[in-house]
């Protein structure tokens, strides 16, 4: 699920690459989205990369590549209009159409278990048992088993993960450098952090300068899953 600004930036990058074959610069993105600083663009790019929509290619200027477009948004991204939202007007029996659309949405939606709370800050108990379920759009999920966790803490705010969010996790014990993972420390403490391998050690990085990077021996950390999506209520 994308925020309005994430969608707007993805749309802008997609259209610019269709027109010129070259991704826009950070200054162009900042101006197009009406942001005051490039740090805001950097956070949006990071969020899109973590959600699997774009990829930054190393050792190349403006090295952005669009990997995929959300199914629910593909028709709008393919629209020739550059920006904005145009409502679709359906003539005829509006009530019947609304019921049909709702039924189709329910058929497509998938239910995954919420397995308690995860710390993005201070230590918290390890992942709890299944507490309830949450419904997510199918385009958020790939292959494999998934579960959800409620976030507590503010150590990942610069990665766009806020206290009270629900993160969608693909269950796996394998992760790459830079992935945001659910890490189980000493079989007692579960935390949501960015993974870095440094020699024979594992570093768990926060996305908030108020928190220090924590470094452990490889036998102390078990990867429980990798972040693939996020849900937020306003």
Summarize this entry quickly:
The chain is α+β, with helices and mostly antiparallel strands and 234 residues long.
Account of the protein in words:
The structure is a single chain. With 234 residues, the protein is of the alpha+beta class. The chain has helices spanning 4-20, 26-33, 38-50, 74-77, 94-108; strands spanning 54-56, 64-66, 110-119, 132-136, 146-152, 166-171, 180-185, 189-198, 201-205, 214-216, 221-231. A nine-stranded mixed sheet has the order 4-3-5-6-11-7-8-9-10. Residues 74-92, 99-107 and 122-126 have low confidence and may be disordered.
Compile the SSE list and pairings.
Blueprint: H1 4-20, H2 26-33, H3 38-50, E1 54-56, E2 64-66, H4 74-77, H5 94-108, E3 110-119, E4 132-136, E5 146-152, E6 166-171, E7 180-185, E8 189-198, E9 201-205, E10 214-216, E11 221-231
Parallel strand pairs: 3-5
Antiparallel strand pairs: 1-2, 3-4, 5-6, 6-11, 7-8, 7-11, 8-9, 9-10
Helix pairs in contact: 1-3, 2-3
């Amino acid at each position: 699920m994308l925020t309005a600004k994430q969608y707007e930036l993805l749309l802008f990058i997609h259209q610019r690459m269709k027109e010129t074959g070259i991704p826009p610069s950070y200054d162009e993105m900042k101006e197009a989205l009406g942001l005051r600083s490039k740090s805001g663009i950097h956070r949006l790019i990071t969020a899109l990369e973590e959600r699997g929509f774009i990829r930054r290619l190393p050792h190349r200027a403006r090295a952005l590549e669009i990997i995929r477009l959300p199914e629910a948004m593909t028709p709008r991204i393919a629209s020739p209009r550059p920006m904005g939202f145009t409502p679709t007007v359906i003539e005829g029996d509006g009530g019947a159409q609304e019921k049909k659309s709702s039924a189709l949405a329910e058929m497509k939606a998938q239910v995954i278990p919420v397995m308690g709370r995860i710390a993005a800050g201070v230590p918290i108990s390890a992942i709890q048992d299944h507490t309830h379920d949450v419904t997510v759009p199918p385009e958020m999920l790939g292959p494999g088993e998934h579960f959800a966790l409620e976030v507590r803490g503010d150590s990942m705010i610069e990665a766009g993960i806020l206290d009270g969010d629900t993160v969608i996790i693909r269950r796996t014990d394998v992760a790459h450098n830079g992935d945001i993972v659910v890490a189980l420390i000493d079989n007692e403490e579960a935390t949501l952090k960015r993974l870095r391998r440094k020699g024979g050690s594992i570093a768990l990085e926060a996305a908030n300068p108020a928190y220090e990077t924590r470094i452990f021996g490889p036998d102390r950390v078990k990867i429980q899953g990798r972040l693939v999506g996020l849900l937020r209520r306003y």
